[in-house]
Amino acid sequence: MTLKKVLSLISSALIFVCASAQVKLGIDVLKQHDFDVLKGKRVGLLTNATGVDASMQSTIDVLNSAEDVKLVSLFAPEHGVRGNVYAGGTVSASVDQKTGLKVHSLYGKTKKPTVEMLKDVDAIVYDIQDVGCRSYTFVSSLGLLMEAAGENDKEVVVLDRPNPLGGNKIEGPLVYDGYFSFISKYPIPYIYGLTVGELATLLNEEGMTKKKCKLTVVPMEGWKRDMDYSQTGLRWVMTSPQIPTWQSAAYYPMSGIVGELGVLQIGVGYTIPFDAFAADWVNADSLADELNKMKLDGVTFRPIVYKPQFSALSGKIVYGVQVYVDDLKSARLTEVQFRVLEALHNLYPSKDIFGMCSDKTKKSFDNVCGSNKIRLEMSKRYKFDDVKDLWRDSETSWRRKSKKYHLYE
Which of 134, 228, 242, 326 is most solvent-facing, going by the fewest CB within 10 Å? Predict the structure, then answer.
């Protein structure tokens, strides 16, 4: 028996470590089927630290030791293939220390695989845990990989993973012309309610990439649409430094859009990333009272005082609220931040949040929102009801369109 086969069997045996898991990941289903879709192929792999099997072994090492699978190169998204690059940091071409494989950077000047990068591969595997939001750059990296594969007659194999927010939560508008960017690459809602495999299929079939590719999705086993991540039985690997727990994936869409403005502290730089709204001019008790009076579905606010060590307002004592998501299914996550802007305006009508921002941060906010319409309308009176219909206007049509690509009930 070859060393590769022995290592593969040992890895499979270690799955008992996560025996309580109700969900079997795409990588583990692939192993269960003896890597059938990759046998005899020269394989590239786009992954990061979240690409692990049930025993927490990196997909890099799983494929590198698999019998009849020839892993020839790695492709690095934001944070790098082993998760050793800070948020937003340039990922350089390199060699993976553990395997000796060449690492092609897709998070620097080049974000789409080139002809040269793809010339020695037959198929590229994608295995990354996402957070279910379009502004997360992994969505863009996936789409550009598929586009390049289509242009170069290569296959893409997506190893599916759970959407931590479940498969039914859909929030936010599509992206308008003029506002497409690497953080809003495709015309999908801000929270899109699909697994990565389902999203890949939709992007491919709906012509959202410039060139359709040959796509194979290795589905999970045991995942249901109404599951949040806690119900999967799987262990969470941080998807980026500020998403340390699966709950952070719910906080991220709740505050990350307003966080682009740089005026409010949202817990990044403290111990509760994306889980707070604060500033040095806010009365914490008053803001908590004002927000709790709104009786927003599924969330509760408490006053908090803290001192962030980096990011917005670093080194200053700030006052505001921490948010508790009591019911993920009923909470309108993305709308919390707009209600916070409304509450702040009610308490401090002389504070014009958008007026306190630079043109650069306004542009970032608009790109994440998908247009400037939300900002322009909201800035008039700071009432969320003025933009509510605009924010929700694509959700019903998206639910109909995306349902065709559901792999799970």
Answer: 326
Tell me the C-alpha distance between 249 and 162, whole Å.
Answer: 12
Residue for token digits 């692939």? 30
pLDDT digits (tens, 9 = 90+) for 190-223: 999 999 999 999 999 999 999 999 999 999 999 9
Residue appearing with tokens 């898991």: 21
Structure tokens at 395: 């959700």
Output the DSSP codes for 144-157: HHHHHHHHTT-EEE
Radius of gyration from C-alpha coordinates of the chain: 22
SS3 content of the chain, % helix, strand, coil (to 5): 35, 15, 50
Q: Is the pLDDT score of 88 beyond 70?
A: no
349 HSE (CA, 13 A, CB side): 3
For 5, the enclosing helix (H) or strand (E) is helix 3-13
**Matching residue, tokens 């799983």:** 62
Query: Model-level pTM greater than 0.85?
Result: yes
Residue tagged 């505001």 (tokens): 320
Look up tokens 């699909």; give the residue. Answer: 194
Three-class DSSP category at 254: helix
Q: What is the mean pLDDT of the chain?
A: 94
pLDDT digits (tens, 9 = 90+) for 253-280: 999 999 999 999 999 999 999 999 999 9
